[in-house]
Amino acid sequence: MRRVFGATGVSRCLIAGCCSIAGVAAPLAWAGEPGLRISAVYVGGGLQASGGVPASTFSHDVIELHNAGALDVQLSGWMLHAAPGFTGNWVSYITLPARVVPPGGFVLVRANSALASAGGAIVPAPDVVATGDRVGGGPEGINLTALGTSSSRLVLSRPGAAVALHAVSNVTNPLLDARFAPFVADLVGLGANALAFEGAGPAPQPGAAPGTFTTTHVLVRREAGCVDSDNNAADFVVQPLSATVLRNSASEALVCVPACGSIDFNGDGLFPDDSDLVDFLVVLAGGTCSTEPAFACGTIDFNNDGLFPDDSDLLAFLRVLAGGAC
Predict the structure, then answer these.
(1) Terminus-to-terminus CA distance in the chain, angstroms?
(2) Which of 1, 62, 77, 177 could form a Cys-Cys staple with 42, CB 3.0–4.6 A?
């Protein structure tokens, strides 16, 4: 018999504030990751027209970063690392300067200048101009143009690793290396032969498809940077730079508003019913959903904000259950 959610003992106790759920502290601690990630990559800077490939749109390679999370991110100690497709060595890197990126904010990083012999000024102006960090004595930061001719990898790392990624040889995939995996905030593999990527496959390589060129096209994260399913193949698309608006710290903040999960939390087809709320609280406390394994319960990060477990998940669940908006 279908039981419609009403003012049950659980809900009354919850509303009154008298419930105590084992294993859940109050307030719930934030256990998510900072939301900074790579949102756009231009790998064709500084090249003259050659062999049917147009000259570069920009004089330098460019990386756009986006804070899609709900907290400020202090960049001090964060790094960008790059590796070509044919080696496990992360041959070049950029140390990001101390600055705060607010929720929804952007940082535009200008990378190499070694091949900057063509192309116009970067618009909007970069926030970070890499200097002096290229392994092997190169003049400036990550040389993505050299990587644009083959499948490559780009990593955004948080501070705290005992050893720098570029200081260690033969690390094909830092997500599989215990020394680096906890500090990898984002990894993007570009091109069919990328040695590492997130999810089912790498992101497309600008210039690989007919009609696209590394010099005039850019790799962008879908939905203006708000899609992050940890699957490079699904999260990124190549598009003309002429149809792309890169963003820097002066750009309007873009706060990604994720969709809430299903109120039929336990997926049993009965909604709304008491068991959805009970299962939500049980799983939140570390227990097992009543319908498993027949049905998969929804995610405890109900509002999909990357912060879990936190009070807002429960509040959003109850609000939507009552007919409100997430």
Answers:
(1) 28
(2) 62
> How do strand 73-74 and strand 152-157 relate by DSSP bridges?
unpaired
Burial of 296 (0-12, 13-18, 19+ CB in 10 A): exposed
Starting at the edge strand that comes first in sequence, how are the strands of the sheet with 36-42 ordered? 128-129, 106-110, 62-67, 36-42, 217-221, 236-240
**How far apart are alpha carbons 228 and 236 in whole angstroms?**
9
Torsion of CA 271, 274, 277, 283, to 10 degrees: -110
Query: Model's pTM, two decimal places?
Result: 0.71
Which residue bears the tokens 């049993």?
Answer: 268
Q: Show pLDDT as tens, one digit a residue, over the chain (326 residues).
A: 222 222 233 333 333 333 333 322 222 222 234 589 999 999 888 888 988 889 999 988 899 999 988 789 999 999 999 887 677 788 788 889 999 999 999 999 998 655 667 899 999 999 998 865 444 333 345 555 444 456 788 999 999 999 989 888 889 999 999 999 999 999 999 888 888 999 899 999 888 888 999 899 999 999 899 888 889 999 999 999 999 999 999 999 998 866 788 888 888 888 767 788 898 888 888 888 888 777 778 888 888 776 766 678 888 888 888 887 77
For residues 73-95, one letter each, b for 16 or more C-beta atoms within 10 angstroms of the residue's C-beta and e for the rest, the string is bebeebbbbbbbbeeebbbbbbb
CB-based contacts of 192, cutoff 8 Å, min separation 6:
151, 202, 205, 208
Write phi, then psi, for 255 (nearest 5 degrees): -90, 115
- The 3-state DSSP composition of the chain as helix, strand, coil percent (nearest 5) reads 15, 20, 65
Q: In the structure encoding, which two tokens stand for residue 202, read together? A: 């790498």
Q: How many CA atoms lie within 13 A of 103 on its CB side?
A: 8
**Which residue from 103, 110, 114 is spatially nearest to 125, judged by alpha carbons?**
110
Place of tokens 């090249």: 47
